[in-house]
Amino acid sequence: VSAPFSVQQLRLREHQVFLALTIVVGVLAGLSAVLFTVAIERATRLFFGLDPSAVRLFVVPVVVSLGTGALLTWVFPDVRGSGVPQTEAAYHLRGGVVPWRVPAGKFLTGVLCIGSGHSMGREGPSVQIGAGLASIIGQWLPLSPARIKDLIPVGAAGALAAAFNTPVAAVLFALEEIIGDLHAPLLGSAVVASVASVVVERSILGNEPLFRVPEYHLQHPAELLAYAALGVVGGIVSLLFCKSLLSLRAWVLRQPAWTRPFQPAIGGVVIGAMLLAVPQVMGVGYEYVDQALNGGLVLNTMVLLCAMKLVATTVSYTSGNAGGIFAPSLYIGAMAGGAVGTLVHRLAPLHTADPGAYALVGMGTLFAGIIRAPMTSVFMIFEITQDYQILVPLMVANLLSFLISRRFQPTPVYHALLHQDHVHLPAPAVRLAPTRWTAADVMSSDVTIVPPDVSVQGVWETFHHGGAHGYVIGLPDRLVGVISADRLATARQSGRLLEPVGSLVEGAAVHAHPDHPADVVLDRLAQGGGILPIVSREQAQQVLGVVTFTDIVRFTRQRPRGVAPFE
Amino acid sequence: MMEGSGSCSACGGPLADGGCQTCDRGADSRFIHREIVALILLGAVVVIGFVVTRAAARANRELRLMDAARWYEAGERAIASGRTGAAIPALRRAASIDRDRREYRVALAGALMADRQDEAARQILLGLREANPEDPEINLRLARLHARRNDLAGAVRYYQNALYGVWTAVGSARRQVRIELIQYLLARDQRSRALAELLVLTANLPDDVAAQTEAGQLYLKAGEPRRALDHFQRALERDPRHPEAVTGAGEAAFEVGDYVRAQRYFRSVTPSSRVSSSREITELVLARDPLRPGLPLAERYDRLAAMVRAALTRVDACLASQEAAGQPRAPDLQSLSVEAHAFEPTLASQKRRRSPEAIETGVSLVYRLEQRAAEGCGMPSTLDRALILIGRRHDMDRQ
Hints:
- The complex is a heterodimer.
- In chain A, 63% of the residues lie in helices and 5% in strands.
- By secondary structure, chain A is mostly helical.
- In chain A, the strands form two sheets. In chain A, strands 1-2-3 form a three-stranded mixed β-sheet. A two-stranded antiparallel sheet of chain A has the order 4-5.
- In chain A, 53% of the residues are buried.
- Classes of the chains: A mainly alpha, B mainly alpha.
- At the A-B interface, helix 1, helix 8 and helix 11 of A face helix 1, helix 2 and helix 4 of B.
């Protein structure tokens, strides 16, 4: 090298390093996923032994959850739950930066929670661990911020490919769920990482499919109607699962802060009691999925396990344990599908496939309904079966389940979980749409936030001379809402002078985020009555500024000539 | 680092184009070295991670295989003690942990079949068959399962698959499967298919007593007593006192109508309940048959008279029972009875005239009487059966 690097040469070098890193990240993510799986199995064996007594079944989840509750509260507070929503937040909102404590904490607490019998999956945590490792490597080198961010889906794809042994579905999951764009330029990197990960995983565990499935045949074209019925059932069960999960979690989050360390143990008590009656809901539960796929379970058992797994997963997840809903959704789907298949097969034994085929399609159906990644679900089942014939029934059932779930639960479950934590991910349209200005460009950072306990009279006397259209009510880190100047005047005229101003706030606060484009800002500004709070995406109760029509007019006047503000 | 005078303050090297080439080279070199070192370090981490993970996975797999073996042993113990219900979950655990172990899945399928969970067993067996479609044991189990479900086509298909599978124990195992198939077909009244399989079986039959005896018994069940008798006799050539072969030969000879030979065989074995009826009938046939070769004519008439009397007793009782039950008397039986009553008194004069034709006529009459009585009044007694057989033998001889 005789001359200093030009910018182009540096970019080329970084590209080469990134390519090498993609392979390294894929391998490490794969190794971490394999190690995570092995550790969970060893922990389960250690905690429960070969044939656990009733006392052990009940005590283990409670005692271990007491320890994990402390860890999840004081040592690793960011690793509760699945890991997929947190990974999405890290990618979209934190520039791909993940602290080292996240993958380490997720590994430890995930092993303890799932190993102690909580009904949770290992794929979500694997994704968070893989993405976290990728981010740590990117930060250590160090790569540019954009490249660090790019490594997140690469690590996620590698981890999922090894955890589920489905390399194509892992790539699609990284694009569809983590990035939210199937056309993302990271496709190549995700593929390389996924392949590297699967190669490593298979060299360690052998080329053994996660499930052994019987040969599939569509017995008769009319059988598609049965699969459509399965899609409807899958949609309803998905909806039931999402609603239960979100409702119970919302209730748990409203409990006092001092209960947080004990919440996992309370979940452990419920799970321990359930294990006494239905030990099949323990942990990941793929053993029973395999049995359902191979016709090893009768109708009553499958119906029971479908219901019990739904309850157990809801309890385990909402009580704040570390573990995912990926595997439980497949489990519930397999049982629901197997039950539907058994009924259909009884009605028309000559024209329908064995119940195992329905269990298989049911897995994809629930995945499409709960996780809302329809392409991933189709390819995942296709990779498991390696059979083209299953594609059409799978797509029919998945589509119906997806549509039903989306109709009655518009926000996907991972995003809804983030919402409950006051983290608002940008919608795909916001991420992709080119825009000339955003809320951050026009907002005024000099915001007066009126505490909600100030009286109506107090607000009137202090602010009404300023001629404001409305007022932001809340505290700097807790947005309560917005009230218009007209509403304040009406309250004053009706004699509600001494009432706190917070009581005038109705419904959820209309707000926008700094990256929202012009059309969204204008639309919401109109809804908000002339004043629009701009809040952080990472902490949606933190007010960063406000936008009024005056701010937009001022911004427009300051813009250079010739540039239209609202295109 | 740089000075305007022409030499670098950091390294003392010459300046050119506003920069120190020596320092630039060093910076570039450090940059490259840093990347290389970082990648080497990451490579080392990957290698160490791989070794550690593989060791952990291997240890875990060994532990799981041991667990599977323990579950399997527990399942086998439960089966041995007759607790099939307890064996199933244990074997299921074993089979789900070590999915490559064929014997675990076979044992599970067997336990499920024993517990009448046929569909679950079938699914497991189909999974095993998918891996090895020519596995005779799996096909045989599937055949038995379908046989139990009264699925004739399915059972026969799997039996055929088992027959043409790859047997490690050549000969006897395959022969046993064919015998099982023949027995199944005979039980399902598939006589012609059973005979086809029997022909294949006997074409390659070893010349030993047990095999020939078994073939004889199958032919006997298939309604082919002549072929059966051939195989029993072949068996007896090797072991003349083989009880099963002697009994079978007696039964076959009895079915053929060779009562003399049947009597010889029956008398040479210890009486058993299986053949007691045949043996008694054989004795009666030979003792009562008026057409038996070598008898003096007077003896023939005496025997015929006894036959006619016995037949009339049976017919009169039959008609009386019909009358008592309020049923109309069968006209043909009634007319036969009248004919017999008229025939009986003529026997004495026929005997004196030493007319041989009357004996055949009498035997025929007795045969028709007994046949009609059996049709109208149910199962005949041992003597009546003997009389029917005498008549049938007479008819057959005439034919």
